[in-house]
Write a structure and sequence with these properties.
The chain is α/β, with parallel strands linked by helices and 292 residues long. Helices cover 21% and strands 28% of the residues. The protein folds into two domains: 113 residues, Beta Barrel (Elongation Factor Tu (Ef-tu), domain 3); 154 residues, Nucleotide-binding domain of ferredoxin-NADP reductase (FNR) module (Rossmann fold, 3-Layer(aba) Sandwich).
């Protein structure tokens, strides 16, 4: 097993956690109730909502969520303002979790960042996406390449028993600009390693097969540099005790900025991996609907 990098627990970030004090009654179409909100930095937050009883999804999929827009000046009617959000919670969770950026002038996130427990959001219960196990051929080593809030679908997949049933080793890489932005991922990995329910579901020792490799591009963090650069110059492989990617055993999922997705496609195909899809499984997949 190679080196598993961990983020120091003494990272200082602004974290407000609010939980729902009481049940609310949904009034919006396809509405769910916000049950918890946690702010990590001035640009990142997560929130939890109730889950429709009928909602079934595969780990890694996304749904459309949002709020009602402002009234149309001409007719006073309001339309839903929706965006694609990956479900960060595992399939067996009673609630739903989402991880989001805050954009000051963003049509949706400028308002969504102010939600509180008890508020309502719109959730279209039709999950879709490419970051699912069905889109990959069988392999032995699974890589998750994320930047920013692109870690969200992997937060679900990392808590999915099938992930550890299908693969001998799972590697999460997460690239952010600043060390504080790694907090969500660091908390996630710590929770997974100590989760007794997951241990019961998957088996003892499952977390020993999970490697966490965070990097930063602005701050001096656990590892400095964009993951694409660390892949190209061989640093990542040396750190993890891996020679190189092998299309016979390696499988990969990518979710991040357009730049990361484009560069990772080039890198993975350079190692001989082919892009897959639900209808034609192969060695790697990229989430094209990610907006964070």
């Amino acid at each position: 097993m190679g080196t598993a990098y961990r983020v120091c627990k003494d990272i200082t970030v602004h974290m407000n956690i609010a939980t729902e004090p009481s049940k609310a009654v949904a009034a919006l179409p396809d509405a769910q109730i916000v049950t918890e909100v946690q702010h990590y930095t001035g640009s990142l937050f997560r929130f939890r909502t109730t889950r429709p009883r009928s909602l079934r999804f595969r780990a890694g999929e996304f749904v459309m969520i949002g709020l009602m827009g402002d009234p149309d000046p001409a007719n006073g009617k309001r339309k839903p303002l929706l965006r694609a959000y990956s479900i960060a919670s595992p399939t067996w969770d009673d609630g739903l979790e989402f991880y989001s950026i805050k954009v000051k002038d963003g049509p949706l996130t400028s308002r969504l960042q102010h939600i509180q427990p008890g508020d309502q959001i719109i959730l279209r219960p039709k999950p879709v996406g490419t970051l699912v196990h069905d889109a990959l051929l069988p392999g032995k080593r699974l890589w998750f390449f994320a930047s920013g809030t692109g870690i969200a679908p992997f937060a679900s997949l990392l808590r999915e028993p099938q992930t550890y049933e299908d693969y001998e080793r799972v590697i999460l890489t997460h690239t952010c600009r600043e060390t504080a932005e790694l907090k969500y991922g660091a908390d996630l990995i710590e929770t997974i390693r100590g989760d007794e329910l997951l241990r019961d579901l998957i088996g003892d020792g499952f977390a020993d097969r999970l490697t966490y490799y965070p990097t930063t591009t602005r701050d001096d963090g656990p590892k400095t540099g964009r993951v694409t650069r660390l892949l190209r110059n061989g640093t990542l492989f040396a750190d993890l005790g891996i020679d190189r990617m092998d299309p016979e055993i390696d499988r990969a999922m990518v979710c991040g900025s357009l730049g990361l997705n484009t560069d990772m496609k080039e890198i993975l195909e350079g190692f001989g991996l082919r892009e897959g899809a639900n209808a034609a499984p192969a060695e790697y997949v990229v989430e094209k609907a990610f907006v964070g």
